[in-house]
Amino acid sequence: MTIPVTDVRVDDDGIFARCDGELVVDVLFDERRIWSFWLPRDGKPSGGGYVVEWPSALRRFLHGTTRLQLVTHVEQQTAYDAEVQLGEGSDRIAVVNDRGLPLGIDKSLRLAQTFDTRSAEHVAPLLDSIDEVLGALQKAGIEPFIAYGTLLGAVRGGKLIGHDSDADLGYVSRHSHPVDVIRESFDLQRALADMGYAITRYSGIAFKVDVREADGSIRGLDVFGGFIGPSEDDGYLHLMGEIRTPYKREWIFPLGTTTLEGREYPAPADTDRFLTATYGPSWRVPDPAYVFETPESTHRRLNGWFRGTRVKRAEWDRTYSGHKLEGELDQTASAFAKWVVREHGGVPERIVDLGCGRGVDELFWARKGARVTGLDFVIRGSEAAAEVAAQEGLPVDFRMLNLCELRSVLAEGGRLAREPGPRVVTARHLADATDKVGRANLWRIADMLLRDGGTLYLEFLNTRGEDDPFARQHHLRPLPVDLVEHGLRERGATIVSRKVIKDGETSRRICRMVVAWQR
């Protein structure tokens, strides 16, 4: 049955439409698919319909004119077709990279060169690399197969899915314990690196192989490890990306075959069961806006086994690699650092800064006489500050702390808690830059460090500013003040004071808190 899409309106904020049921809609610019969404799943209720906002990755292109079409993906029925003007300017909107190559929004709402923009000549190197990597993995002693969207495209239509942007391989280890599976994955990575491939590791049992295509584009080939076990979970398939489901080994082995772009590739023995475990029973119906809904128990289990040291690491690596560190050190200390000194009535003798970032505040406090430890997830951010501190003989040290890994929190918290005397703990834009697990561990380590005396000075984003580059650059999400207070009180803290203030000349609002533990 066809579900009608009516009353469509398009403006700079997004797309408004009415619809009586869920369906997938493709957005085309000048007859090329740019993006797909579910209506109303991805929309906000408004005026009897739904508003679906433009993806943030797409907004910088939305200046000019285009023929915009909305087409239902499965039925291929056109719900809207009009010439529209967005943003400023009158040129044709071109969603392309810096080399003029077409881009689209993938299932993760990121810009990518999707397969529907690529010719057979351009994807041939990727297929060649699938062949080569499969051979290398087989030579290393495992039985790999194509997986996820790559397998889905092969089984459903014998070709790469147009709205996909990468290729996926998987394997199920002969081992049943996570440690053994991790060791095997690193052995596989070394074998591929010896072949000349550039490797980026995602987790303990997943990595990406970079493949250069004919036009110079870099395409990622993902290798996801999996296993059945360990003993207490025997009968469950665990596969990175993210699957944990009751499974039998004979549904995978012996491997069968499937055809992709005219080439034969290994596949799980029962592709129907595998794709049902991956995408659900409706996997046969195309869905370019599919969203993985991983149970929290599965996510936490796989994080604990394989991703404890990698959660959000890629985002912060990109943040720090995109700027010259020396330039950052020319900046003055943050307003927060100066506020801490004023609020404390002078420079604290001992400061532990959680989430120190570039380390600029550490230098400021140390030059005024404080002994400072800066803790951060990505220690490379403070490398330049550490060099300056060494040159000036300042009492500053920088150490790694991962709030998403309990082992790191307990080890570093225990080490610092052994130091005698009161201390000040600071955390600027840290609670709003991590997830709920990280926040719980932030309150935990603050409790460990301050239960014998001292003060926590806290700053976090309360309201995002309009078109807020600061929030984007620092991966910040606004937090309700009551949510933060509740988390702190659960750890036995007392809120000494709190204040929500306007941050500079922007509409951004931040909250500053003074917190203590009174035993």
Explain what this protein looks like in three dimensions.
The chain has helices at 120-139, 148-157, 178-194, 271-279, 296-307, 313-321, 325-328, 335-344, 360-367, 383-392, 406-417, 436-450, 469-473, 481-490; strands at residues 5-10, 14-19, 23-29, 32-39, 44-46, 49-53, 64-72, 78-86, 104-105, 111-112, 144-146, 167-172, 198-203, 206-212, 218-228, 236-239, 243-246, 256-260, 263-267, 350-354, 371-376, 396-400, 423-428, 454-463, 493-502, 509-517. The chain has 519 residues and is of the alpha+beta class. It folds into 3 domains: 5-95, Sandwich (Immunoglobulin-like); 115-307, 2-Layer Sandwich (Beta Polymerase, domain 2), CATH 3.30.460.10; 314-517, Rossmann fold (3-Layer(aba) Sandwich). Helix 11 runs parallel beside helix 12. The model is unreliable at 322-328 (pLDDT under 50). InterPro entries: LicD_transferase, SAM-dependent_MTases_sf. This is Methyltransferase domain-containing protein.
Average pLDDT, rounded to a whole number, is 88
- Total tally of structural domains: 3
Percent helix range:
25-40%
First-residue to last-residue Cα separation: 65 Å
How much β-strand is present in the residues? Answer: 25-35%
> Would you tell me the structural class of the helices and strands?
alpha+beta
Please count the beta strands (DSSP E, at least 2 residues each).
Answer: 26
- If you compute it from the alpha carbons, what radius of gyration comes out, rounded to the nearest whole angstrom? 26 Å
Annotated CATH homologous superfamily of the largest domain: Vaccinia Virus protein VP39
- How many helices? 14
Classify the fold: give the CATH topology of the largest domain: Rossmann fold
InterPro entries: LicD_transferase, SAM-dependent_MTases_sf
Organism: Nocardioides iriomotensis
Protein name: Methyltransferase domain-containing protein
